[in-house]
Amino acid sequence: MPDFVKGLALGQAFYEEAARPIIEKHFPQLRYSAAIIGWGSEVLGYDDAESTDHHWGPRFLMFLDAADRERYEQPVSDALSANLPYRFRGYSTNFIPADDDDPVRLLKEIDEGPVNHMVHIETIESLFGWYLGVSPFAEITLADWLTFSEHKLLALTSGRVFHDGLKKLEDVRRKFGYYPQDVWLYLLACEWQAISQEEAFIGRAGFVGDELGSAVIAARMVKRLMRLCFLFEKTYAPYSKWFGTAFARLKCGPELTPIFRRALHAENWRDREAHLSKAYEYVGRMQNELKIAAPVDDKVSLHGRPYMIIHARRFGMAILDAIEDEEVQRLNFFGGSVNQFVEDDNEVGQVALCQKLKILYQPSPPPRGD
After folding, report:
1. Is 228 exposed, middle or buried (0-12, 13-18, 19+ CB in 10 A)?
2. The pLDDT of residue 370
3. For labeling, which of 17, 130, 134, 233 is most exposed (least CB within 10 Å)?
4. Which residues does residue 302 pair with via DSSP β-bridges, in sequence order?
């Protein structure tokens, strides 16, 4: 087994040293872009030696204009198959074919014949079309933003572009770089609203002896607070496998991570509440320091019953008052984006399902004049 090298570095070297000379020799006038974006742990920089067991290796995405793709996709693929080396940096360049039953491709060593490479040839439109369900060159609507998989937005704007001969790919990635301002504020307000609905239940469940139920609610609060942190730092959150890894890399991660761990490991509701109170106040200060809304008292206090809470609804209402976009103001659904109320990451990744959920974001009609 060769020494492990990060997939982005491997992919860039594979493109520059092995694939690009073939493309330039056989198709010298062809305009294209090359990158690793989209799927794969290496796109986020989270791959390690274990990642090499599936859908990982010397690879990249090659983008052509639509007319060139129709004309050149097969000839380019054939030229690469005939001329690529069988190994690059110790890794096979040949993969088993994908099929309908198992789309995952694995490295397979060969010593003769054409290379079944993993250079995907796409148009920019086709990738964004099947991955997000929109044309990247069309206007992105409010309902689009709220039904995109956040993990997919992260994956398309992460990774690395090796060559942008089409002079479009980097511009498109910037277009999806982060949520528009008032969409961002709406997501923040909805996260606080969700916290407000359950923050007192940690103590209430524990008070009647339901420590397990209290712990489950606390875990949800931790996840909600982590989501707020991603939003405050304007960083797309990945799906569950990498959620904690990415959180630890946020600016607030080093300070909040041990607090969250103590809250999750607490054996009684009073300790759980005490640790979460520190986290609530920290995250409340984050909002006030951003000065995106009127300041809110960021100290926990009694709920009325003997449970300490941050009174999260106040933070959400302050943010709602700061929203200026009329279409966002007229939204009558306060569950947030699909990422905030659909727990199943696989479901959030289904473009067809998310597009059906756009109906939730039909704004109320504007007030009629006299």
Report:
1. buried
2. 45
3. 130
4. 308
